[in-house]
């Protein structure tokens, strides 16, 4: 097999050589992205409950910094998660998955 092939067939296993790093990186990024989205969703639900409880108790929405102060860490974490997710989604689209012709490996 020459060096131009992107796959090697050894003892029933296909080893990706040319693009394996990008594939691995993409899988790890997708996993991290799913974890961040899950955390964001849970935090979003919790913050919505806090906001509704505040509205019920005070008859108005959380409009000032003083209103949010007891939960500021959660609000800041939520903002950070949104930024991280957005950045990861931009980066993810820049990592192309390789197209392999597996018929060339045998």
Explain what this protein looks like in three dimensions:
- The protein has 106 residues and is mainly alpha-helical.
- It is 60% helix and 8% strand.
- It is built from three helices and two strands, in the order E-E-H-H-H.
- Strands 1-2 form a two-stranded antiparallel ribbon.
- Helix 1 packs antiparallel against helix 3.
- It is elongated.
- Mean pLDDT is 80; it is low at 1-5.
Number of strands: 2
Structural category: mainly alpha
Major sheet: arrangement of strands? 1-2
Helix content: 55-70%
Please work out how many helical segments DSSP would assign: 3
Topology order in helix (H) and strand (E) letters: EEHHH
Distance between the termini: 9 Å
Beta-strand percent range:
5-15%
Low-confidence stretches: 1-5
User: Which word captures the global form?
Assistant: elongated
Largest sheet: number of strands, sense, barrel closure: 2 strands, antiparallel
| Overall radius of gyration | 23 Å
Q: Compute the average pLDDT.
A: 80
Task: Provide the descriptors you would attach to this structure in a database record.
mainly alpha, 106 residues, two-stranded antiparallel ribbon
In short:
With 106 residues, the chain is mainly alpha-helical.
How are the elements arranged and paired?
Elements: E1 7-10, E2 13-16, H1 20-58, H2 65-68, H3 72-92
Antiparallel strand pairs: 1-2
Helix pairs in contact: 1-3
């Amino acid at each position: 097999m020459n060096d131009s092939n992107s796959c090697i067939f050894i003892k029933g296993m296909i080893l990706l050589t040319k693009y394996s790093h990008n594939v691995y990186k993409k899988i790890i990024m997708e996993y991290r992205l799913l974890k961040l989205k899950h955390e964001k969703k849970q935090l979003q639900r919790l913050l919505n409950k806090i906001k509704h409880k505040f509205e019920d108790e005070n008859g108005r929405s959380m409009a000032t910094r003083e209103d949010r102060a007891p939960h500021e860490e959660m609000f800041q974490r939520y903002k950070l998660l949104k930024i991280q997710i957005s950045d990861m989604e931009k980066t993810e689209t820049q990592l192309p998955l390789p197209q392999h012709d597996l018929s060339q490996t045998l």
